Amino acid sequence: MHFLCELVDAKMKGPFSQILVCCDGSKYSEKAIRTACDMAKSYDAGLTLIHVIDKTRKSDILAGSEYTEILRKYAKEVIERAQKITDQEGVKSKIMTKEGNVAGEIVKYSKESKTDLIVIGSKGLGAVVKFLLGSISSKIANHSLCSVLIVK
Hints:
- The chain is globular, with a radius of gyration of 17 Å.
- The chain has helices spanning 2-12, 27-43, 64-88, 102-112, 127-133, 136-143, and strands at residues 18-22, 46-54, 94-100, 117-121, 147-151.
- Helices cover 52% and strands 20% of the residues.
- It has one domain (14-151): 3-Layer(aba) Sandwich (Rossmann fold), CATH 3.40.50.620.
- It has a five-stranded parallel beta sheet with strand order 3-2-1-4-5, with helices on both faces.
- The chain has six helices and five strands.
- Helix 3 links the parallel strand 2 (46-54) and strand 3 (94-100).
Protein backbone atom coordinates (compact mmCIF):
# COMPACT_ATOMS: atom_id res chain seq x y z
CA MET A 1 0.00 0.00 0.00
CA HIS A 2 2.85 2.39 0.83
CA PHE A 3 4.33 1.86 -2.65
CA LEU A 4 1.00 2.82 -4.27
CA CYS A 5 0.90 6.09 -2.29
CA GLU A 6 4.39 6.96 -3.51
CA LEU A 7 3.31 6.35 -7.11
CA VAL A 8 0.31 8.65 -6.71
CA ASP A 9 2.49 11.38 -5.15
CA ALA A 10 5.11 11.01 -7.90
CA LYS A 11 2.45 11.40 -10.57
CA MET A 12 1.33 14.74 -9.11
CA LYS A 13 4.82 16.25 -9.28
CA GLY A 14 6.07 17.36 -12.66
CA PRO A 15 8.93 19.21 -14.26
CA PHE A 16 7.56 22.59 -13.17
CA SER A 17 7.05 23.66 -9.56
CA GLN A 18 7.05 27.45 -10.07
CA ILE A 19 5.34 29.04 -13.07
CA LEU A 20 5.62 32.75 -13.88
CA VAL A 21 3.02 34.30 -16.21
CA CYS A 22 3.60 37.62 -17.93
CA CYS A 23 0.49 39.83 -17.97
CA ASP A 24 0.03 42.91 -20.14
CA GLY A 25 -3.74 43.04 -20.63
CA SER A 26 -3.74 41.74 -24.21
CA LYS A 27 -5.85 38.82 -25.45
CA TYR A 28 -2.60 36.85 -25.91
CA SER A 29 -1.75 37.49 -22.27
CA GLU A 30 -5.16 36.18 -21.20
CA LYS A 31 -4.60 33.01 -23.22
CA ALA A 32 -1.16 32.62 -21.58
CA ILE A 33 -2.78 32.96 -18.13
CA ARG A 34 -5.34 30.25 -18.90
CA THR A 35 -2.63 27.95 -20.28
CA ALA A 36 -0.50 28.53 -17.18
CA CYS A 37 -3.48 27.72 -14.95
CA ASP A 38 -3.95 24.39 -16.73
CA MET A 39 -0.26 23.61 -16.28
CA ALA A 40 -0.26 24.68 -12.62
CA LYS A 41 -3.17 22.31 -11.96
CA SER A 42 -1.54 19.46 -13.90
CA TYR A 43 1.84 19.80 -12.18
CA ASP A 44 0.62 21.03 -8.78
CA ALA A 45 2.83 24.08 -9.33
CA GLY A 46 2.86 27.53 -7.79
CA LEU A 47 1.72 30.36 -10.06
CA THR A 48 2.89 33.97 -10.04
CA LEU A 49 1.44 36.71 -12.23
CA ILE A 50 3.84 39.48 -13.19
CA HIS A 51 3.29 42.84 -14.85
CA VAL A 52 6.19 45.16 -15.60
CA ILE A 53 5.66 48.89 -15.96
CA ASP A 54 7.83 49.83 -18.93
CA LYS A 55 10.04 52.63 -17.68
CA THR A 56 12.05 52.70 -20.91
CA ARG A 57 9.27 54.51 -22.79
CA LYS A 58 8.51 58.17 -22.08
CA SER A 59 5.45 60.29 -22.80
CA ASP A 60 5.74 63.38 -24.97
CA ILE A 61 2.48 64.75 -23.61
CA LEU A 62 2.53 64.08 -19.85
CA ALA A 63 5.08 64.89 -17.18
CA GLY A 64 7.11 61.92 -15.99
CA SER A 65 5.33 61.52 -12.64
CA GLU A 66 1.84 61.81 -14.21
CA TYR A 67 2.73 59.24 -16.84
CA THR A 68 4.14 56.86 -14.23
CA GLU A 69 0.96 57.16 -12.13
CA ILE A 70 -1.19 56.30 -15.17
CA LEU A 71 1.02 53.28 -15.88
CA ARG A 72 0.80 52.15 -12.23
CA LYS A 73 -2.99 52.42 -12.29
CA TYR A 74 -3.11 50.40 -15.52
CA ALA A 75 -0.75 47.80 -14.01
CA LYS A 76 -3.05 47.40 -11.00
CA GLU A 77 -6.06 46.86 -13.30
CA VAL A 78 -4.17 44.34 -15.45
CA ILE A 79 -2.92 42.30 -12.52
CA GLU A 80 -6.35 42.32 -10.82
CA ARG A 81 -8.02 41.08 -14.04
CA ALA A 82 -5.35 38.40 -14.37
CA GLN A 83 -5.90 37.25 -10.79
CA LYS A 84 -9.66 37.10 -11.43
CA ILE A 85 -8.95 34.66 -14.27
CA THR A 86 -6.80 32.45 -12.04
CA ASP A 87 -9.50 32.52 -9.37
CA GLN A 88 -12.11 31.47 -11.96
CA GLU A 89 -9.80 28.65 -13.03
CA GLY A 90 -9.47 27.50 -9.42
CA VAL A 91 -5.75 28.30 -9.15
CA LYS A 92 -4.21 30.35 -6.35
CA SER A 93 -1.76 32.92 -7.63
CA LYS A 94 0.69 35.44 -6.27
CA ILE A 95 1.04 38.83 -7.92
CA MET A 96 4.15 40.84 -8.68
CA THR A 97 4.50 44.28 -10.24
CA LYS A 98 7.90 45.61 -11.27
CA GLU A 99 9.15 48.76 -13.02
CA GLY A 100 11.90 48.95 -15.63
CA ASN A 101 12.83 47.17 -18.82
CA VAL A 102 10.06 44.60 -19.35
CA ALA A 103 12.11 41.63 -20.57
CA GLY A 104 14.99 42.39 -18.19
CA GLU A 105 12.76 42.60 -15.11
CA ILE A 106 10.92 39.38 -15.99
CA VAL A 107 14.17 37.46 -16.49
CA LYS A 108 15.62 38.93 -13.29
CA TYR A 109 12.53 38.04 -11.23
CA SER A 110 12.42 34.52 -12.71
CA LYS A 111 15.98 33.94 -11.44
CA GLU A 112 15.27 35.40 -7.99
CA SER A 113 12.09 33.34 -7.55
CA LYS A 114 13.61 30.11 -8.90
CA THR A 115 10.97 29.92 -11.62
CA ASP A 116 10.95 26.70 -13.68
CA LEU A 117 8.74 27.99 -16.49
CA ILE A 118 7.84 31.41 -17.88
CA VAL A 119 4.57 31.57 -19.83
CA ILE A 120 4.06 34.56 -22.11
CA GLY A 121 1.73 35.51 -24.94
CA SER A 122 3.23 35.67 -28.41
CA LYS A 123 2.08 39.25 -28.93
CA GLY A 124 1.51 42.10 -26.55
CA LEU A 125 -0.11 45.48 -26.89
CA GLY A 126 2.58 47.35 -28.84
CA ALA A 127 3.04 46.30 -32.48
CA VAL A 128 5.08 49.43 -33.32
CA VAL A 129 7.33 48.97 -30.28
CA LYS A 130 7.83 45.32 -31.24
CA PHE A 131 8.92 46.38 -34.71
CA LEU A 132 11.37 48.94 -33.34
CA LEU A 133 12.75 47.14 -30.28
CA GLY A 134 12.13 43.45 -30.96
CA SER A 135 9.66 41.11 -29.35
CA ILE A 136 9.61 40.95 -25.57
CA SER A 137 8.80 37.23 -25.75
CA SER A 138 11.87 36.69 -27.95
CA LYS A 139 14.09 38.61 -25.53
CA ILE A 140 12.80 36.59 -22.58
CA ALA A 141 13.28 33.31 -24.46
CA ASN A 142 16.85 34.28 -25.36
CA HIS A 143 17.92 35.49 -21.90
CA SER A 144 16.01 33.29 -19.47
CA LEU A 145 17.73 30.45 -17.60
CA CYS A 146 14.47 28.46 -17.39
CA SER A 147 12.06 27.09 -19.97
CA VAL A 148 9.80 29.57 -21.76
CA LEU A 149 6.41 28.76 -23.25
CA ILE A 150 5.21 31.27 -25.83
CA VAL A 151 1.44 30.93 -26.27
CA LYS A 152 -0.16 31.86 -29.61
